[in-house]
Specification:
Layout lengths: L19 E8 L2 E9 L5 E10 L6 E8 L2 E9 L5 E7 L5 E7 L4 E2 L3 H23 L3 E8 L2 E4 L4 E2 L5 H11 L6 E8 L2 E8 L14
Antiparallel strand pairs: 1-2, 2-3, 3-4, 4-5, 5-6, 6-7, 7-8, 9-10, 9-12, 10-11, 12-13
Pfam families: DUF1481 (PF07356)
InterPro entries: DUF1481 (IPR010858)
C-alpha cells in the first residue's frame, strides 16, 4: 500500500507565507501530511494533520481550530472508519469546556494526560508547519492512471520525481487495474515520494474553502 523514500531536508525561507498551505514530512514509522489555513495576519485559523503509519491501518486524522491564534477545538479520529474519536473544546482562557472520547461501544472522559497530549500534538503540528513553510516544502497529491498523473485540482501534470521513482510507480500500477493515489513533496532541495496507495486522496483532501 505504501512507498517511503528517504528524507528530504527542509531549509530556506519564504518571503510571503501563503494563507493556505499543504505540506508534509517523514515521521517516525509513518508519513505526516499537514494542511493549514491562516488569517491575514498570519495566525492559524485551522490545521488538519493526517498521520499514516507504515505497518498498520490506524491512520490518525486531527483537526485543530483556532480563534485569534489560540487553540479552541481538537477533533481526532483513529482508524480508516473512525473507530475511535476524541473531541476537546477550550474557552478564551484556555480552560477545557468540553471533552469526550468516543469508542465503538462507549464514551469516556479524557484524562489529564490525554488533554496534555492533545495540546502538545497541536503545538507540534503548528511548529512543524512553520518550519516546513519556511523551507518551501509543498505537498502534492493526485492520481496515477494509465501512465498519467493528474493533480487533485484535475490538471494533468508531469511528476517531478527521479526516474527510478516514476518507474516504481509504473511497476506498482501494473499490478492493479485501479488508479493509484500519489502523494509527494516538492521543495527547492528536491522532491520526495511519500505515498502510493489504492486510495483516492483527492476524495478527502481539504481546500482553503472547506477548511
Amino acid at each position: 500500500m505504501l512507498a517511503l523514500v528517504a528524507g528530504l531536508s527542509a531549509c530556506g525561507s519564504s518571503s510571503a507565507p501563503p494563507r493556505f498551505l499543504a505540506t508534509g514530512y517523514v515521521a517516525d514509522q509513518g508519513i505526516m501530511r499537514i494542511w493549514r489555513k491562516d488569517s491575514g495576519s498570519g495566525q492559524p485559523l485551522a490545521l488538519m494533520s493526517v498521520y499514516t503509519p507504515l505497518r498498520d491501518n490506524d491512520t490518525v486524522v486531527s483537526h485543530y481550530e483556532y480563534t485569534h491564534g489560540k487553540l479552541t477545538q481538537v477533533r481526532q479520529s483513529h482508524g480508516g472508519g473512525g473507530h475511535e474519536s476524541l473531541l476537546l473544546r477550550f474557552d478564551e482562557n484556555d480552560e477545557v469546556i468540553f471533552m469526550q472520547r468516543q469508542l465503538s461501544d462507549r464514551k469516556e472522559v479524557l484524562s489529564a494526560d490525554d488533554i496534555t497530549r492533545a495540546r502538545f500534538q497541536a503545538r507540534h503540528a503548528q511548529e512543524l508547519s512553520d518550519t516546513l513553510r519556511a523551507g518551501q516544502v509543498r505537498l502534492q497529491q493526485g492520481r496515477w492512471s494509465k501512465g498519467q498523473y493528474t493533480s487533485c485540482a484535475g490538471t494533468p501534470q508531469k511528476l517531478k520525481l527521479d526516474a527510478w521513482q516514476t518507474a516504481w510507480i509504473e511497476q506498482r500500477a501494473a499490478r492493479t487495474a485501479m488508479p493509484l493515489g500519489i502523494a509527494w513533496l516538492d521543495a527547492p532541495e528536491g522532491t520526495q515520494l511519500l505515498l502510493v496507495a489504492n486510495e483516492n486522496f483527492c476524495s478527502w483532501e481539504p481546500t482553503e474553502k472547506s477548511m
